[in-house]
Design a protein that fits this description.
Number of strands: 0
Distance between the termini: 88 Å
Structural class: mainly alpha
Strand content: under 5%
Radius of gyration: 31 Å
Number of helices: 3
Helix content: 55-70%
Largest sheet: none
Amino acid sequence: MMLWYGGHWAFWQASLMWLGMIVFWGLLVWAIYALVTAATRKPSRGDHDSADPLRILEQRLARGEIDEAEYRRLRDLIGSGDRHEPVGTGIA
């Protein structure tokens, strides 16, 4: 097959090809690395799963979601360790 103007690639065409190939493989390696590390990452201390109830209650008070009386009532309920079961569950 004959290419235009002499049948050879210009330097910039070959450079763009190599640059494109390096970028492609770099993105592919980065994507695999990101997927593997995201799957094995441990939850941080700021996650809601690991937060204790008193800390959540204090944050709700600070945001103004509950007033001081409600805060004290819920804090006493958390501190007393009473576990109220829903009505009709059959647990005594």
